[in-house]
Amino acid sequence: MNTSKKKKTATPYSVPWSKPDIGKDEKQAVERVLKSGWLSQGKVTEDFEKELAKYSGAKYAVAVNSGSSALLCALLAHHTMHGDRVLVPDYTHVATASVPILLGCKLSPVDICLRTLNVSVPKIEKSVRIFRPRFVISVDVAGMPNDRESLCELANRYEFTLIQDGAEALGAKYKGLKIGSTNNTVILSFHAAKPITTVQGGAVLTNDERIAERCRLIRNFGQASDQSWLQKIVGTNLKTTDLQSAIGIVQLRKLEMYIRRRNRIAERYRDALSEWFSFQKVPEYVTRHPYMMFISLASSQRIRNMLKEYLLRRRIDTRTPFPPLHIQPQLKSISSKRFSNSIYAFRHSLALPIYNTMENHEVEHVISSVSAFFQQVLSRHHHLGK
Q1: Using CA of residue 181, residue 199, residue 290, residue 282, what is the dihedral sign?
Q2: pTM of the predicted model, to two decimals?
Q3: Are strands 173-174 and 286-288 parallel, antiparallel or unpaired?
Q4: What is the pLDDT of residues 63-122, one digit of tens each?
Q5: Any idea of the CA torsion for 214, 216, 218, 220, to the nearest 10 degrees?
Q6: Which residues pair with 205 in a beta bridge?
Q7: Using CA atoms in the order 99, 101, 105, 111, what is the torsion angle rounded to 10 degrees?
């Protein structure tokens, strides 16, 4: 792959943490929309939704302007009310919590499983017994699916609504089935760091026609699309544009190729760096991990921080994912419980670079730099231990 032109783009990193792949096809798709004269949500968005539903295995896809808007749509479509109790993983992006809080819900975080970094099903059940929530929002961390069958069984037994935050998980497979093929509502994000992007954007996947129709109304001020301007339910403006959807259509057709590439990178990282890190465990029920992120776990927070700084000096960008919800400055009051696993993950995790167009030499530069740190720098700090 020729990267001579790409090296001219302005970036402070020789290896960025993430990078969207926007090429000739995406630009031509945008130009066609510009020439059509219809730029806002319209026929191209409808086409994107149809392709997204077909790809994901869902009956319906409703495109919106962000992943957070998708979660807002999903909760409102399921008749969320002020005061509803909502369980969420403690280890997640703050948007998973901020949307239900904005709706006046009562939030209860749940600790994760340290091996998978996803929410712990036994701890979910324990919290469900205590709080009797109306909603549980599961999060597929780095795109890796939760144990959906176990969560759906809990939802049926305890009569709560399960919403799957699959913001990072498009293309993932659970027991051979893609992310939209189950009966629970799923939300997606198409932020620029995701495997496919519409620059900003999101979607709701559902097999329930009533939920899909409510999402369409909610994103459009509560109005139907018949231009009557009559508000059937209370909604707001969460619409996307045909410009973004045009990019999404092209990106979606490349997703299988993107996921294959990300899996090859992840496999190379695991093979080369297992001496230095532990990694997110992939259970047997996960038949495909899309690797929106590749999360490694160092032996201590201090070593993780030292490595991050070392890689930065080598112009390699990394991320420390997800401050747990219970330590977020605006959310400290939501729980006084201890969350040992989410705290451990936050203190030890480092997301290494992974993106669709990442070249082999870039992967090897990351690997050799990490190895150099542990072989050279860490040997001079052997007194740190673990």
Answers
A1: negative
A2: 0.92
A3: antiparallel
A4: 999 999 999 999 999 999 999 999 999 999 999 999 999 999 999 999 999 999 999 999
A5: -150
A6: 61, 186
A7: 90
